[in-house]
TrEMBL record:
It comes from Fibrivirga algicola. This is M48 family metalloprotease. Residues 65-241 form the Peptidase M48 domain. Signal peptide: none annotated. GO terms for molecular function: metallopeptidase activity. Its cofactor is Zn(2+). Keywords: Hydrolase, Metal-binding, Metalloprotease, Protease, Zinc. The keyword Hydrolase applies. It holds the Pfam family Peptidase_M48.
Length: 490
């Protein structure tokens, strides 16, 4: 290959960046490109935390929080970066997830805590998340993205007609980096959880629970296009790593099943109805006392800060959120300015007795910065058009935004209109007083299969698989009398 002057300059730039910013990774001991200092990592965590809390909310459980803090501090002390200001939080989400932010911030959802069946499973995932922080995966990902971009530019310059396919290949390479980081964190998690006395085989078993959840949801993706390794593969590999660790380091590794189960007795399970819930194609918010329809077949996602929904074809969507301002007029002005909108139509009206304003707008293109590529020509197909209903209700201004391309807007707007004009006061006592499901821990009243025992505990047949996932048991598995099991009820 002939080295062109342009490529030579790019290589020189890459070498200068690497030589001036390479640092030793605290986990691997290898020198690698680092574009972020420890102080910057900590700053990112501090800046991210308020928005995470605002989006997901915190789950208040002093007993569980104290347990998480104790185990987190013990693990941080034996980690590769014990001097970071680690902080541990339980977020109020039913999703089975845990994640970490640079600088030492670790988050577990109440959903994942409800699915663990012993302390060792918890410790394995905790080690995995702390591993992302100690191995500086966010920093390494950022650095590799820079070099991938430089390589992509070089590829496009050298062979312009292959530039697009090269970048697609680079994006797949980035996914493999993410998978590599996940696998590395699995290994770190085995080590960290073992060092504080837990059996890392239980971490592997939890991946079987993750795979079961994934298989039941029907949302699995090809491994090549997943940022996480397949949980079935992780189950096997983590068992191998745990066996290898324990062979080299013989000891009495703990599981602590019953102590963990007693600790989560009463934890909330699934959606918190106080934050809103969907039933029979209607969204109800008992705390704020309103309701509005959800179109048939639309998927939806709720959080403390907003409610999103849309059809599976992805051609339109709706977002419901609080708007800024003391009146619909103020809210409209703030929205247009903040979202950089061009107003096409606006009109005041009432929605079931509430003052409202309807605004049809389009999002203006971002101003082109000097040196950027020329902007794509704006067409009806690539222009975002928004139909917004601002509704004043009980001292708040609520915004219901309907979004689609300008080309599809006329077809989509009747649905946006029907949903928004269906906004009304919630008065049904059953919905206003809806209680959440909770996980309760009970002793098996008899021996038998898991299905038989759940039936004896008055659990409905329709929830046997769901209960099996939560308990990490199959319907035909043998359960002995007196075994602690989770049930789900109000």
């Amino acid at each position: 290959m002939k080295i062109t002057p342009t490529l030579s300059r790019l290589i020189a730039v890459s070498l200068v960046i690497c030589l001036s910013n390479c640092a030793k990774n605290p986990v691997t001991g290898k020198r690698e490109l680092s574009l972020m200092s420890t102080e910057q990592e900590i700053a990112i965590g501090k800046e991210s935390h308020p928005s995470i809390v605002a989006t997901m909310g915190l789950y208040e459980d002093p007993k569980l929080q104290a347990f998480m803090n104790t185990k987190g501090k013990a693990m941080a002390a034996i980690s590769h970066r014990p001097d970071l200001p680690y902080q541990f939080y339980i977020v109020d989400s039913p999703v089975v997830n845990a994640f970490a932010v640079p600088g030492g911030y670790v988050y577990f959802t109440r959903g994942i805590l409800a699915h663990f069946n012993n302390e060792a499973e918890f410790a394995g995932v905790l080690g995995h998340e702390i591993g992302h922080i100690t191995a500086r995966h966010s920093v390494r990902q950022q650095s590799s993205q820079l070099l991938t971009s430089l390589a992509g530019i070089a590829g496009a310059i050298l062979v312009p007609q292959l530039g697009e396919s090269f970048m697609q290949g680079a994006q797949l390479l980035q996914l493999s980096y993410s998978r590599a980081h996940e696998s590395e964190s699995d290994e770190i998690g085995v080590g960290y959880s073992s060092k504080i006395g837990y059996d890392a085989n239980q971490m592997a078993d939890f991946f079987a629970t993750i795979k079961r959840i994934q298989d039941n949801s029907g949302q699995s993706v090809p491994n090549m296009l997943s940022t996480h390794p397949d949980p079935g593969n992780r189950y096997t590999k983590v068992h191998e790593m745990a066996k290898d660790y324990q062979t080299k380091n013989p000891g009495n590794y703990q599981v602590n099943r019953d102590t963990y189960l007693r600790m989560i007795d009463g934890i909330m399970y699934g959606e918190d109805p106080k934050q809103g819930f969907v039933e029979n194609n209607m969204f109800y918010h008992p705390e704020l006392k309103f309701q509005f329809p959800v179109p048939t077949g639309w998927q939806h996602q709720n959080s403390p800060s907003q409610f999103q929904m849309g059809p599976k074809d992805g051609k339109s969507s709706m977002i419901m959120m609080l708007a800024k301002g003391n009146s619909v007029e103020e809210a409209a002005q703030a929205m247009v300015k903040e979202l950089n909108l061009k107003v096409l139509e606006s009109a005041k009206q009432t929605v079931n007795g509430n003052q409202a304003m309807v605004i049809i707008s389009q999002q203006l293109p971002q101003q082109q910065q000097q040196g950027q590529q020329p902007q794509q020509q704006q067409t009806a197909a690539n222009t975002l058009q928004i139909g917004t209903y601002l509704i004043q209700y009980n001292g708040n201004i609520y915004a219901l935004h309907g979004l689609s391309s300008a080309a599809d807007f006329q077809k989509s707007f009747p649905t946006f209109k029907s949903v928004s004009e269906g906004f009304r006061t919630l008065t049904d006592p059953d919905k206003l007083n809806r209680k959440p499901d909770r996980v309760y821990v009970r002793q098996a009243p008899r021996a038998g299969t898991f299905r038989e025992v759940m039936t004896a505990m008055n659990m409905p047949a329709s929830r046997i698989e769901e209960l099996g996932v939560v308990n990490s048991l199959k319907a035909d598995e043998r359960v002995e009398k007196g075994t602690l099991l989770k049930v789900i009820t109000k």
